[in-house]
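[retry 2/3] MarR family transcriptional regulator: previous attempt timed out, resubmitting with same input.
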Amino acid sequence: MVTPLRRAAVTGDRHVPPKADKPEMTVLSPHEFAVLLLVNDSAEACELDRADIETLIERQLVTLERRGPNRSYARLTIQGHLFLKACGHARANLRAKASATAR
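[retry 2/3] MarR family transcriptional regulator: success.
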């Protein structure tokens, strides 16, 4: 039996796999990762590169939160927090740190 890959190798045809239902996984650029770390440190959205913020929003790692007519803050989503946690860069909750040091 000739499989599609074997036939492509023999005939020279290019095998194009069908699109999967899952979104394509791509790696963050170093600049996007740095912006994600800045968002983790509560940086204002106006201080960050708009293109990187839009990319992180598309990847559902960040969301924008409006605070007043001219202010918006970027916040990590749960996926963004889990991503940074997996990379070893998640910042602990400040309240948890404060209560731990008070004890």
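[retry 2/3] MarR family transcriptional regulator: The chain has five helices and two strands.
[retry 2/3] clearing retry counter.
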